[in-house]
Structure formats: structure tokens, C-alpha cells
Design brief:
Strand order of the largest sheet: 7-6-5-4-3-2-1-8
Largest sheet: 8 strands, parallel
Order of helices and strands: HEHEHEHEHEHEHEHEHH
Shape: globular
Helix content: 40-55%
Number of helices: 10
Distance between the termini: 16 Å
């Protein structure tokens, strides 16, 4: 299954940004075991490339394991070398361009209509509406008017209630960080993470 289809099927991307590499790895594995099939590890987290390598070795080649906060050409290159098969950017630029050149599907950060047009022209696979909290579901509805078929994935301040609203407004998926991950990637409670994962999977239909 390609990334565009995986997004439409799973409708949930988990975003991990941890201060503890071992805890971040355990968070990846707990989410995968809970049934979350699209996982992003932000490069701003502690030893993120190591976490990606370790998770890839455990999850195998077919799992969707992304690198997030890909800003530069080097970020994209290092992420690919670590085993990421998805690139997530907060905006346009060299991270997006190099990821496309490397053949990685890209969830590219956009906010304005001009950025939607530019991201599509650059080869983005899907569009990360970020920070989605700026305009909320009503802004997504407005943005979909000129771009009815664009695969928008709202990210930023998405709790369970917001996830329902964004999906109802036409998002293909939502990206969720702390409302899902909590403190698990910093060494927190994995049992609580499993409970939150089940809740979000219920909301998203996973």
C-alpha cells in the first residue's frame, strides 16, 4: 500500500518527540502493537535517527516509519539512511525537495493557499495543515473549497474532539502528538499510552 492509501485507511499519524531515546523507541513499539500503523519520529527528539534505525530493525521494511521536522537536505538524507520511508516537513524548502528527489513520500507542511499550490508543484504526497489550531476545522473547510481533492492532514493541537471535527470537515487523516503520546516518549506510562491509542483509533476508525 502506498502512503496516500495508507493515510486514507489509517486516518491517524502518531507524532513522537521525546527527550529519552529508549523511551521513544518503546513508545514506537507500543503504538505499533496497539495498531497505530503510521508513526512519525521528530528529528528534534533525542537521538531521533538512532530511534528510527532501531525501530526499523524491529518493525521490518514494510512499516510506515517517518522522520518529522525535516528541514534541510541533510535532514532528508540522514533520515533516509536511518530507514525512514516517509518524510514530514513543517513547511516548504530543501527538506521537501530532497525528500522527493530521494523518492520518499512527503507529508509537507502548508498553511496558505499559495503554499498548497507550491507543495503540490514540488511533489508532496499529502499536505500537513500546520499549525491547524490557527484556524481550526472551519479553516480546513474554507481551504478545501479551492482544493476539494487535496489530502489535508491537520497537525497541531489535535485532541480527540478536534480529530473528529477535522475528519468530519474532510481531512484524510490527522497528525497527533502530545494528546496521544503524552509523556511516554519521556519515560512515562505505557499503559496510559495504550489507552489513549485505543481512544484515537476508535475516533479515526482504525
Amino acid at each position: 500500500m502506498n502512503f496516500a492509501d495508507a493515510l486514507r485507511t489509517a486516518r491517524l499519524v502518531a507524532i513522537i518527540r521525546g527527550t529519552d531515546a529508549d523511551a521513544s523507541f518503546r513508545t514506537v513499539m507500543t503504538l505499533a502493537e496497539a495498531g497505530v500503523s503510521l508513526i512519525e519520529i521528530s528529528l528534534t527528539g533525542r537521538d531521533a535517527l538512532h530511534v528510527i534505525r532501531r525501530a526499523r530493525a524491529e518493525l521490518g521494511t514494510d512499516a510506515w516509519l517517518g522522520a518529522g521536522t525535516v528541514l534541510t537536505a541533510d535532514d532528508a538524507q540522514h533520515a533516509a539512511e536511518a530507514g525512514a520511508n516517509l518524510s514530514v516537513t513543517p513547511g516548504l524548502g530543501a527538506g521537501l525537495d530532497t525528500s522527493v528527489r530521494l523518492g520518499l513520500p512527503v507529508l509537507a507542511g502548508v498553511l496558505t493557499p499559495s503554499e498548497v499550490i507550491a507543495a503540490n508543484a514540488a511533489g508532496a504526497t499529502a499536505l500537513k495543515l500546520f499549525p491547524a489550531s490557527v484556524g481550526g476545522p472551519d479553516y480546513l473547510k474554507a481551504l478545501r473549497a479551492p482544493f476539494p481533492d487535496a489530502p489535508f492532514v491537520p497537525v497541531g493541537g489535535v485532541d480527540a474532539a478536534a480529530a473528529r471535527a477535522y475528519l468530519a470537515a474532510g481531512a484524510v487523516a490527522v497528525g497527533v502528538g502530545s494528546p496521544l503520546v503524552g509523556d511516554a516518549a519521556d519515560g512515562g506510562d505505557l499503559a496510559a499510552l495504550r489507552t489513549r491509542a485505543a481512544d484515537f483509533l476508535s475516533v479515526c476508525g482504525g
